[in-house]
Amino acid sequence: MHLSPDQIIYWQYGFFKLNATIVFTWALMLVLAGGSRLITRKLSVGLERSRSQNLLEIVVTGIAKQIEEAGLSQPQKYIGFLGTLFLFIATASLCNVFPVYQPPTASLSTTAALALCVFVAVPFFGIVDQGVGNYLKSYMQPTFFMLPFNIISELSRTLALAIRLFGNMMSGAMIVGILLTITPFIFPIVMTLLGQLTGMVQAYIFSILATVYIAAGTRVRKPKPEPVKD
Amino acid sequence: MDSITIIAVASIVIAGITTGFGTMGPALAEGRAVATALSSLAQQPDASSTITRTLFVGLAMIESTAIYCFVVSMILIFANPFWNHVIAQAVKK
Predict the structure, then answer these.
(1) pLDDT at A121
(2) Which of A1, A163, A208 faces B57 most closely, judged by CB atoms?
(3) Which option is the CATH number for B3-92: 1.25.40.20, 1.20.20.10, 3.40.50.10800, 1.20.1330.10?
(4) What is the pLDDT of residues A157-177, one digit of tens each?
(5) DSSP secondary structure string, A132-198?
(6) Complex prediction ipTM
(7) Among partner residues A1, A167, A208, which is closest to B67 by beta-carbon distance?
């Protein structure tokens, strides 16, 4: 039994390995990027628009609305990053219905890479929004003694993001594999359906958590009101 | 008992205990969270979208503790580092 799609190796030349994670990640990237390119090739601004353009508009405006509701008032600045995270994780788990397919998010390397992107993006957007000094100062809120705890929380939440996604996707594949050996007919299908639901929920949660972290990093802290002297 | 047997027994037993006890707390916590969310949904149906979103995020946070336990037990069973170490030692001899 494979613990992760890293162990399925299609092609190997010395140090270089082509495992299932890399293959399916690139396949997903091709499908997502190529599909969007194909649809956005001829866009229309009038009332007559194609069905695929409508679909993409629903997706994009839906994601923008969710980002705005989670606390970022200008979703256009962040939708490139957060929307990509959501779409990639969602398609990675939705494609589970195809045979032979192995979700690349069931490998710890993929989820760790995604979590590292969030780890880098939070200071990036924070510094872009409020400058280096103000951002670094936010680590010392409310007092100077909170500095180590703020740094620890930054690291531990990155670890939690990676392990959460990996654990959920891996457990879905694992449970289906175990059930196939015990009750091979109906039950694995039901669990696969449940896995689709968990996959969507996890994609939503991953991107909403990234949104919340970025919102916490970019929030401009108002100076404390001066105590009134009498 | 030689060391391979001890490691195998300990890993299997601890893997079961880890998942068993580790899912107990999150199960109770998720039950409480859903119950509270349902009662507040009944009181304020207008705020359903906010409550549902917060509930999902909170459930994921709670559930991740159970997932950690599951990952630990999976590592103990399928990718046990101690087991691999002992096997490597035995091969060397």
Answers:
(1) 92
(2) A208
(3) 1.20.20.10
(4) 898 889 889 888 888 777 777
(5) HHHHHHGGG-S-GGGHHHHHHHHHHHHHHHHHHHHHHHHHHHHHHHHHHHHS-SSHHHHHHHHHHHH
(6) 0.70
(7) A167
